[in-house]
Amino acid sequence: MRALVLALAAVAAAPAAAGDLAVQVRTANGAGVPNAVVTLYPRGRPAALPAARPAYQIAQRDLQFSPFVLVVPVGGEVSFPNFDDVRHHVYSFSPVRRFELRLYAREQTRSVRFDRPGIVPLGCNIHDNMIAFIDVVDTGFAARTDAAGRANFTAIPGGPVLVRVWHPWLRAPANQLELRAEVPDNGRVAQAVPVNLRPPPRPSRSY
Amino acid sequence: MFSGVCRRRLAAAFAAASLALACSGPARAERARLDFPDNLTAVIDFRIVLTDGERSWTDGGFGRSRFGGGGDDVRVHAVPAEAELVWHGPIAWNVEGNVAVAYQDEQDQPVDLIEAFATWRPVPRGPTRFSVRAGLYWPQVSLEHEGPAWQVANMITPSAINSWIGEEVKVVGVEGSAAHPLAGGRLTGTLGLFGFNDTSGTLLAFRGWALHDQKTGAFSRQKLPPLGPDMAGAQPPWTTPTLEVDRRIGFYGRLAYQFVAPVSLEAFYYDNRGDPAAFTDDLQWGWRTRFLNLGARIDFSARTRLLAQAMTGSTQMGREEDEPDEIWVDTRFRSAFLRLTHEIGEVALSGRVDLFETRQRGEYVYAEDGEDGWSLTGAVDWRLTDQARIIVEGMHVESDRAARSRLGIAPRQNQDLVQASMRITL
After folding, report:
1. With contact defined as beta carbons under 8 Å apart, do A27 and A196 qualify?
2. Chain A interface includes B302 (CB < 8 A)
3. Is residue B125 less than 8 Å (CB to CB) from chain A?
């Protein structure tokens, strides 16, 4: 994820006056929240997307999707390799991108392109408990929080920045909240984002 | 003192158990699983049972368990209780199949088909998930059974309710389900239509509730206890649970809600719409059986859970056309259980209390065949490897039934059983 942040940040042309922003998403009792997606909109507008398109991937391994949350810029292509000994039937019914992939055991060749921004929940039609999310973003400043709930951004144009935080279990409309931060022309500023999470859905018992 | 047959079975059971364990030790566990075809599961259950009390209904008595004692003497049974082979795998991309064949030592058809069904799950087009299941299967009533081999989790003996489901509530049918996210949880509705379950209720009416882990095969008969004098000519001393008698279609419905919190509640209603006046050449009758089952599961933590079910229902059999108001057998039945399971490392401890009763209101089966009873069951389930586990279970059953006087024994009987099961899953 750090690689993605650096790649995106490097592409966003750094103006003369630019600062760094360290975001930490955490619960009311201070625990860092991993797998939240933080996107920044300097002066309320999306930053340019990176020209280079790294290989994005959601693997199926040990009957789980990995990673659980993936950040992809609009136009990005994601491959879905199956490393399991069983077949998977990956699907999304999201209006952002509807698709289904029939992946035989240890098949590694299918990929999907995402042309519209938004959240794409993924499921496996064979294994109900497999879930993952792709956040297709329209701004160059986008990152997934690490295990400590941190996402660090560099070279952001100084001034007001709209910060959006999304997490699949976030207790907020559309699982997303927005706040405003002020990025200095020089130096680093920290922004804590307190959130309230719902309990994740329980695994279903199916026959 | 073991009998000769008993000793041979004991020796054979342990020889096979030792062999299976040797093959499934930690070093070979992974290989054994990979060597076995992916879509096949084999379950082998060796059992040693110590019991006192009266003779089992499977042996011409009124005992509530499948294993009977010799009055005050303790009896030892050593049996390869069950061997089951299950195929579960894809038929098409959206269709999964499940076929189970079992060997059960004491059934009249020792090798029999247990379940054979296919489930179609189309890829969801929206948040609602649909599925259709068709074939020979147990409708989803039991909270205790799990997996493709429909085994009781962490215990040997299911509750009275689910023992009965296992023997008399298996259908040839088709059901449609829809699951929809609601208020952070998930609401699931199921509607099923079925046949081949017209004799459902026979065991509850003539025998009453029982506690055992036998599963009825598609072509098997189940024994009945000694029948009263007025029924002996109308009903042979056995019942065929998977049978179509009256060509009427039955139905069931299920509504379940999984809360955001680790609590789920469900209700299940069943009506086989049996015709009490219909019967076959070998006197298997249509039984009008209806019941409501309520279930709850609470997961206090990942290691501690509470299961509860309560059932109430009725079954009616035998009516002559010129006397439509006279029902030969009219049985009301009720039962409930509460079960707590707590895991410590590889060991799961379970305790369950069951209450059960039947009431008779028919013309030819009298109040003396009604019964009140309860049982207390405790089990220790020790997982040795992914393939092998040992479950030791103690059960106390008590019940009161006046009809026991037909065998010259006291109406109130109790039985204590200790069972040790070695369960190998490949």
Report:
1. yes
2. no
3. yes
Rounded distance between C-alpha atoms, residue B248 and residue B289, angstroms? 13
| Max CA pair span of chain B | 72
- Cα separation, B241 vs B167, whole angstroms: 7
Q: Strand, coil or helix: what is A7?
A: helix
Domain boundaries, chain B: 4-425
Partners of B117 in the β-ladder: B98, B135
Q: Do B133 and A91 touch (CB under 8 A)?
A: no
Contacting residues of A for B31, CB less than 8 Å apart: none
The CATH-assigned architecture of domain B4-425 is Beta Barrel (2.40)
**B158 closest CA partner among B359, B346, B395:** B395
Q: β-pairing, A159-166 with A176-183?
A: antiparallel
For the stretch A135-149, pLDDT in tens is: 999 999 999 999 999
Which amino acid appears at position A23 of this protein? V
Task: Report the candidate in B151, B244, B167, B230 with the shortest Cα–Cα distance to residue B204.
Answer: B167
Q: Identify which of B30-44, B80-94, B337-351 has the greatest average pLDDT.
A: B337-351
Nearest CB among A125, A202, A205 relative to B121 is that of A125
Strand partners, A179: A163
pTM over 0.95, yes/no: no
Strands A37-42 and B145-146, bridge-based pairing: unpaired
What ipTM was estimated for this complex? 0.77
Alpha carbons B369 and B207: distance in angstroms, whole number? 8
Q: Are strands A77-79 and A111-113 parallel, antiparallel or unpaired?
A: antiparallel
Asked if A207 and B140 come within 8 Å (Cβ–Cβ), the reply is yes
| Cα(B225)–Cα(B66) distance, integer angstroms | 12
pLDDT for B29 beyond 70: no
Helix, strand, or coil (residue B402): helix
B423/B105 Cα distance (integer angstroms) = 15
Q: How far is CA B89 from CA A66, B44, B120, B145, in A?
A: 24, 20, 12, 20
Q: Is A189 helix (H, G, I), strand (E, B) or coil?
A: strand
Chain B residues touching A205 at Cβ < 8 A: 146
- Tokens standing for A166? 């999304």
Per-residue pLDDT of A14-59, as tens digits, reads: 456 889 999 999 999 999 999 999 999 999 999 999 888 788 999 9
Helix extents (H) in B84-179: 160-168
